[in-house]
Amino acid sequence: MSFWEYVAGRRAQLLADSYQHASAVFQCMVVATLVGVVIGVLTYRSEWAGNLAVTTTATLLTVPSLALLGLLVPLTGLGVAPTVTALVLYGLLPIVRNAVVGLRGVDPSLVDAAKGIGMSRAARLLRVELPLAWPPILTGIRVATQMLMGIAAVAAYASGPGLGNEIFRGVSSLGSANALNQVLAGTLGIIVLALLFDAAYVLIGRLTIPGGIRG
Fold it and tell me: Which of 38, 68, 120, 195 has the highest CB neighbour number within 10 Å of its CB?
């Protein structure tokens, strides 16, 4: 059976796996973005706190994904829970780092001007600092998403959802008729999803970042 025949015959399952994969990455990125930006906001004013946040999230990223899933399974069980936990933890570093860098890079004179016209600290953060730090934060989100697309495939080890199941089935049955087709279908599916997500981020950047800042 050729690859395209295999895809045609398994189209419904591949589409379901692709949807689950994209949904898991998207939802985990939403959580990672919220947590990462909050960490950045809480730590960027202090040199040691910001460095500690970046170092801690960087340390999490050095833990092999299979090892982390293996550690999480006894605590959370199989399935969605270890997948979500692992993906959120792995997605934090680029977001935290870029949030800290972006917020520290805001021109102090603009913050002082906002303070001079009576803006509260929260208003300055929401209306001046975060909008100006958004371009590097968005870059961090893009990088994190590309990482999680690949890491999410490993979550099949813990019975997680997505295209990793297709890859694992193929790897576990190497030598059988459709083993290569399974691995190839799962891998290409992840690549296509990664490209679609990145195109969406480019569009979001064009819609939310003024031309002067992009330039």
Answer: 68
